[in-house]
Specification:
24% of the residues lie in helices and 30% in strands. By secondary structure, the protein is an alpha+beta fold. Strand 4, helix 2 (83-94) and strand 5 (100-105) form a beta-alpha-beta unit.
């Protein structure tokens, strides 16, 4: 995949990504639930973030993609004071491949045990 970052990177995300003539994959909001339907890491934003990214990775794999194909994530975080925990996991998961990223503080998600929800957009050749 050919992609070009736009703007000046200021952290573990790109301000913008330019892609054209490619296949797009839209991943709905995912939460920290394992394959058995159990919530991972109740009360732990980092643990729920890791599981959520694993879930997104599995969905992308079905389309022949990986997290390296992700160009944009949107994160909904119940407690913005825990943003650093999420940001550390995002940096760990993506490494030097930094997608565009938005994080929105929300009052709650569909279950009070969910602390974070992440949706993604990926691009394939």
């Amino acid at each position: 995949m050919e992609r070009h970052e736009l703007g000046r990177r200021t952290g573990s995300f790109a301000p913008g990504i330019d892609v054209s003539g490619k296949r797009l994959i839209f991943v709905s909001g995912n939460v920290g639930v394992d394959g058995s339907g159990h919530i991972v890491g109740k009360g732990d934003v980092a643990a729920q973030s890791r599981q959520t990214f694993k879930n997104i990775e599995a969905i992308l794999a079905e389309a022949g993609a990986s997290l390296r194909n992700v160009v944009k994530i949107t994160t909904f975080l119940v407690a913005m004071e825990r943003y650093a925990d999420f940001a550390a996991v995002r940096a760990e998961v993506f490494g030097d491949h930094c997608p565009a990223s938005s994080t929105v503080g929300v009052a709650s998600l569909v279950s009070p045990d969910f602390l974070i929800e992440i949706e993604a957009i990926a691009v394939l050749d």
